[in-house]
Each structure stands twice: as structure tokens, then as C-alpha cells.
Amino acid sequence: MINKPEAIVFFDLDGTLLTSDVTVAQSTIDAICQLKKNNIKPVLATGRTIFEVKHIMAQSGIDSIVGMNGQSVFYQGEHIFSNNIDIDLIERILSYSKTQTQIPMAFYNDKLIRISEFSHAAVLLYQYLKQPLPPTDINVFHQQPIQMLLLLCESGEGQYVEQFPELTFVRNTPYCVDIFNKGGSKAFGIQKLLENKQFLDVPTYAFGDGLNDIEMFKLVDHPIAMGNCLAPLKPLAEFITDDNNHDGIANGLNRLGLI
């Protein structure tokens, strides 16, 4: 039987748990350690997939994740939920990209990342993420379930929104747009976790800074925005803590009385 935590805190990753140099501040590591001593569960809630961030989870002491904007959920290493995109739908959007926009794409699941083609757009994105360029495999979705796609572009996603109403499009970096099933979001994945583990009565908190945190902020009991957050998050936040480079996580948790 899983021990019921006193509370759960969901942490966005880029711009929130991570500093600008893509590391976890020592103050954040210490704060998470104290959370766990207080029987408060830390959980990542990120656009990234679990295998991308295993080193960050190990460094921070976090063993649970709502990944790919809620499309894949693991709790203490147990796989709880995946929201796969239909193969025919991937075929359609890939064909549209090749024939109408020439925007390259990336394919994501819990185990791998592949890109549709080598491109300058892909180089820009993975340099920005400080990750190696993934292998090229335009047919990977025929062999592997895919939970998230990326448009590798700095603009041009608007026409996709009109063409594919069954999908959700969220710009997550200056160089890509995340794509997943309609209705999917960090909030969707969080709800699946809470239902699966019978944690619906556990108080929930969330820290975030970006557009893909909006639904999560509307779901949890206590949404906290980082000092570096985008403007749309500010009116949704209970308060705004310091930025991700100046102990925003530790200071916010202190202010909440969780540590």
C-alpha cells in the first residue's frame, strides 16, 4: 500500500526547477529533501519525457513525473498512464508538414526521441535544450507508440491548429511547438495520478513559469508562479516567488510553510 502524502507539490522543469544554466540549485535540492522528510511528495510536471530527465530526477531526489505535458505518468517508478496519439493522425500531420509547410517534426515517447529529418530547426532546438541531436527516423511511429510530437519551428503553427482540431498545440520553447491529443495537459496527467493513487483529498501545489502550466495552475489548490514567469500565469497564481536563478523554489516553499 502506497503511503498517502500530506501534500503533493508539482514542479515544472525548464525555467522553474532548473536554473538558466540547466542545473538544479543546491537550495532547491535541500528544499526537496526537507519536503520528503515532511511527508510531502515532490513530482515533476514537465513537457519533457522521463528518459530525458532521469539525471535531473536522481540529482533532485524526485522519483515521480507527469511527463510530456501530462501524456505519460510515473509514480515512484510505476507506470500509471500513457496517452498515445493515433497512427493515422500522425500520418496526416506528417504528410501536411511535408507537403504544405516543410516544417520538420520530432517524435516522443517514454523511451526515445526521433526527428523526421536533419534540419537547422532541429539543431537550434536541441542546442537550446542542451541535448544531443536525436537520430533521424521518419517511420518510428509505426514501431513505437508516440505520446507527443513537436513542430520544429519559430512560427507557423497557427495553420495546424485549424487543420487538426483533434490535437492540442502549445509553444513550449522559441524553437518548437508541443503536440498531443486534445484535452491532454499537465492537469490531465495530474488528475490521472490523483485518481489512480486515491489522492484526490491530498492538498496540491504547483510551481511553474510557462504557457504549458496554465491548466495545471487551474487544477491545483495552490499555484505558485516563478518570478521569471510569462504574463498569463500571473493572475492565476496565489503568489509570485523569486525567479529560477534566485532560490525561487526554496523561498516559495518556505513562504507556503511546507519546509
TrEMBL record:
PROSITE patterns xrefs: COF_1
Q: Which UniProt keywords apply?
A: Hydrolase
| GO terms assigned for molecular function | hydrolase activity
Highest taxon above the source species: Bacteria
The parts of the chain that form a coiled coil are: none
InterPro entries linked to this entry:
Cof (IPR000150), HAD-like_sf (IPR036412), HAD-SF_hydro_IIB (IPR006379), HAD_sf (IPR023214)
Enumerate the Pfam families for this protein: Hydrolase_3
The molecule here is called: Cof-type HAD-IIB family hydrolase
Organism, per UniProt? Orbus sasakiae
Upper lineage ranks? Answer: Bacteria, Pseudomonadati, Pseudomonadota, Gammaproteobacteria, Orbales
